[in-house]
Write a structure and sequence with these properties.
Blueprint (H helix, E strand, L loop, with lengths): L1 H10 L6 H35 L2 H50 L2 H4 L4 H8 L1 H34 L1 H25 L3 H20 L1 H6 L3 H26 L2 H25 L5 H43 L19 E8 L10 E8 L4 E6 L5 H6 L9 E6 L2 E2 L5 H7 E4 L10 H5 L8 H10 L3 H4 L19 H13 L5 E5 L7 H12 L5 E5 L11 E6 L2 E6 L1 H7 L1 H11 L13
Parallel strand pairs: 3-8, 3-9, 6-7, 7-8
Antiparallel strand pairs: 1-2, 1-4, 4-5, 9-10
Helix pairs in contact: 1-12, 2-3, 2-6, 2-12, 3-6, 5-6, 5-8, 6-7, 6-12, 7-10, 7-11, 7-12, 8-10, 11-12, 16-18, 20-21
Length: 587
C-alpha cells in the first residue's frame, strides 16, 4: 500500500495535465464501446444476412461496422494525443520539481546522494513513470470495460460457451499474481545497477584527460565492463521473468479458443447454436483475453513505476537542512566575521569533530590568511561563513549577527567565495562572468578581469569576452580558470571575500598582482586559504589550523618569532631564508 501511496503522491504533479489524462481515459472507453458493437453486427450479418441471402441487410450492417471501426480509429488517435500530453507533461513537472528541490539542498543533503544517482532519478526513473502512463492508460481503461461488457454480451449470446471464459479468468489472475510477486522486488536493484553504470561513465568522461595521461584506458574499460555486465545480468534476470506472462497468457487464450471451437462446433452440429453466435462469442472472448494480456503488461509497468516512484520521492522528501528563517535579515551591515566556540562535524553520528572549539574575531575590512596541513579543516572553516553548512555547536556571525538569522540569498550574496575546485560552465567568458553580476557592463567585466589578471590572456583571444569556454571550461588552462573564477566573484562586490587556495595554479608574479588588486578593495574582509607562505605573509593576521583547532593567530612577524609550526612551514618553503632568501630562521 505504501508503494501505491507513493504513486498517488506523484499524481499531484499532474497539474494542468490532469484534464488530458481524464480525457484520454474517457476516449478509451468510447473507443472500446465502438469495438464491442462490431461482433454483434458481425453475428447479425452471418446469421441473418448470409443465412437469408439478404444483400441489402449485409451492406447496411457492413456500413455500420465500418462507421464503428472509423469512430474507434478517430477516438484512438485522439486518445494517443491526450495520453502523450499527460505522460510527458507529468514527467516534465516531476523533473522540474526534483531539480528545484536539489537546488535548495545544502551540501550535507547532497552528500547523501551520488551525482549519477540523481541524474538517473531525473531521467530514467521519470521515463519509467511516463511509459507507465503512455503505455498503460489504454489497456488499464479498456480492460474493465471489456471484462464487464464482454462477459455480459457473450453470456447474452450464449451462456454455456461463456462459462469457458469464466474458468480461464482465475487461471490468468493466478499467473499474473505469481509473475508480479516475483518481478516486483527486482526493479529496485535494476535501477541501482543503472546508477552504478552512470557513475562509472560520468567519472570516466570527466577524468578522461587523467585516464589518457596515466594510460589507464584498459583499466577504465574493465571497470565499465564490470558494471555493464552487472546491469546486463540484472536486466536479463528481471525481464526473463517478466516476459513469462506472454507465453502463459497465449497458452491460456489459445486453449480457450480450442475449447470454444470444440464445444461450439458440437452445438452447431446438434442445432443448439448458430455459426454467427459462435463467431460473436469467439470474438468477444479473444478481445477479452487480449485485453487481459495487455493489462498484465500494465501491471509489470506499474510494478517498475512504483520502484521508480519511491526513488523519485526520496529526492523530493529529503529534508532541506539549511533554510532561510521567516523574516530573515535582508541586509548584511559589514564584513566582520566571528566564530564563537564553534565545533562542527559533517554527520551527526561521526565520532570526531572536523572543527573543535574555534574562536576567531575578524574585523570588517581586514585581510586574514589561513594556513594548515592537509585535513586541518581550512575549507570546512570558511564554508560555515556563507552557511554552506551549519555549525554543530557555537555561533558563526557575519556583520555582528548570527548567520542563521539572515535570509540565505542575502547572506550568500554578501559573501563571495572562490571554491577550491574551480567550476566554469558551458558558454562564453561573458556568460560565466555574469554569474557574479547579470547586469554587469563590458567595462565592469574588464575591470574585474584586470583585477584577477585575466585580461592578459583574454586580450589574446580573437573573440575576447565572447570566447566559448567549452564544457566545464576545457578551452582554458587551470591557472586561467582560477583567474576567471576570481573575476566572477569580484563582480559580486561582496563584503566578505573568501579564496580557498584559489591561486595555487598561477605563478608568484601573477599572484602578487592579484594580491595587490585585492588590497585596493575598500571595506572588504578577505580570507585567504593558501599553501604558500608568500600568499599570506602580508595579511593583517594569519590563522594556523591544526587538526581542526586554532593553533595560533598572529602576524607574520609574531608567528615567525614564537610559533614552531609556522616556523617549520616558512623554513621548508623559503629554504631556510626570508622572503628574499637573505634571513635565516633561528630555531
Amino acid at each position: 500500500m505504501t508503494a501505491v501511496h507513493d504513486l498517488k503522491r506523484l499524481l499531484g504533479y499532474l497539474g494542468p495535465y490532469r484534464r488530458d489524462l481524464v480525457l484520454g481515459g474517457l476516449l478509451v472507453l468510447v473507443e472500446t464501446a465502438f469495438e464491442l458493437v462490431i461482433p454483434v453486427l458481425m453475428a447479425d450479418i452471418i446469421d441473418v444476412g448470409v443465412a437469408g441471402r439478404d444483400v441489402a441487410f449485409i451492406l447496411r450492417k457492413g456500413v455500420q461496422m465500418g462507421v464503428c471501426a472509423l469512430l474507434a480509429l478517430v477516438t484512438g488517435l485522439l486518445y494517443a494525443r491526450f495520453a502523450a500530453r499527460a505522460a510527458y507533461g507529468w514527467g516534465a513537472s516531476i523533473r522540474q520539481a526534483q531539480f528545484e528541490r536539489i537546488q535548495r539542498y545544502a551540501f550535507s543533503n547532497l552528500d547523501r546522494f551520488e551525482t549519477a544517482s540523481l541524474v538517473t532519478r531525473m531521467t530514467t526513473d521519470v521515463t519509467v513513470i511516463q511509459n507507465a502512463v503512455n503505455g498503460g492508460l489504454r489497456p488499464l481503461a479498456r480492460a474493465p470495460v471489456m471484462l464487464v461488457l464482454g462477459v455480459g454480451l457473450s453470456m447474452w449470446m450464449n451462456a454455456r460457451l461463456a462459462v469457458i471464459f469464466l474458468v480461464c479468468t482465475p487461471i490468468l489472475a493466478i499467473i499474473l499474481f505469481c509473475i508480479v510477486r516475483r518481478v516486483g522486488p527486482m526493479y529496485g536493484p535494476l535501477q541501482r545497477a543503472v546508477d552504478r553504470l552512470n557513475n562509472v561513465v560520468q567519472e570516466g568522461l570527466t577524468a578522461i584527460r587523467a585516464v589518457k595521461a596515466f594510460v589507464r584506458g584498459d583499466y577504465e574499460a574493465e571497470k565499465f565492463a564490470a558494471v555493464n555486465d552487472e546491469l546486463t545480468d540484472v536486466s536479463q534476470l528481471t525481464f526473463r521473468t517478466a516476459v513469462l506472462n506472454l507465453p502463459a497468457f497465449q497458452l491460456t487464450m489459445y486453449t480457450a479458443t480450442v475449447l470454444l471451437l470444440w464445444f461450439g462446433g458440437n452445438m452447431i452440429l446438434s442445432g443448439a447454436l448458430q455459426v454467427g453466435e459462435l463467431t460473436g462469442v469467439l470474438s468477444y472472448v479473444l478481445q477479452i483475453m487480449n485485453s487481459l494480456m495487455l493489462i498484465s503488461n500494465v501491471f509489470l509497468l506499474l510494478t517498475r513505476a512504483l520502484a521508480s516512484a519511491r526513488r523519485i520521492l526520496e529526492v523530493l522528501d529529503e529534508e532541506v537542512v539549511l533554510t532561510s528563517p521567516e523574516d530573515g535579515a535582508a541586509e548584511v551591515p559589514d564584513g566582520s566575521v566571528d566564530f564563537e566556540h564553534v565545533s562542527f562535524k559533517y554527520h551527526a553520528g561521526a565520532r570526531e569533530y572536523a572543527l573543535s572549539g574555534v574562536d576567531l574575531h575578524i574585523p570588517a575590512g581586514q585581510t586574514v590568511g589561513i594556513l594548515g596541513g592537509t585535513g586541518s579543516a581550512k575549507t570546512t572553516l570558511v564554508q560555515l561563513i556563507p552557511r554552506l553548512y551549519d555549525a554543530t555547536q557555537g555561533t558563526v556571525k557575519v556583520g555582528g549577527r548570527d548567520v542563521r538569522e539572515y535570509d540565505l540569498h542575502a547572506l550568500r550574496d554578501a559573501v563571495g567565495i572562490v571554491l577550491q575546485k574551480n567550476e566554469l560552465f558551458s558558454g562564453t567568458v561573458r556568460e560565466n562572468l555574469q554569474w557574479g553580476n547579470p547586469d554587469a557592463s563590458d567595462k565592469e567585466l574588464w575591470e574585474a578581469c584586470r583585477a584577477a589578471c585575466a585580461d592578459e590572456f583574454l586580450a589574446r583571444m580573437p573573440q575576447g569576452l565572447d570566447t566559448d569556454l567549452g564544457q566545464g571550461g576545457v578551452n582554458v588552462s587551470g591557472g586561467q580558470k582560477q583567474r576567471l573564477c576570481i573575476a566572477r566573484t569580484l563582480l559580486k562586490r561582496p563584503k566578505v571575500l573568501i579564496f580557498d587556495d584559489s591561486t595555487s595554479a598561477v605563478d608568484t608574479a601573477t599572484e602578487a598582482s592579484i594580491r595587490a588588486a585585492l588590497s585596493a578593495l575598500p571595506g572588504v574582509t578577505k580570507l585567504i586559504i593558501a599553501q604558500r607562505v608568500t600568499s599570506v605573509m602580508h595579511t593583517d593576521q594569519i590563522v594556523i589550523l591544526d587538526d581542526g583547532r586554532v593553533h595560533a593567530v598572529g602576524t607574520h612577524e609574531e608567528l615567525l618569532r614564537r610559533d614552531p609550526i609556522y616556523q617549520e612551514i616558512y623554513a621548508s618553503q623559503m629554504k631556510g631564508g626570508g622572503e628574499d632568501g637573505s634571513q635565516a630562521v633561528q630555531r
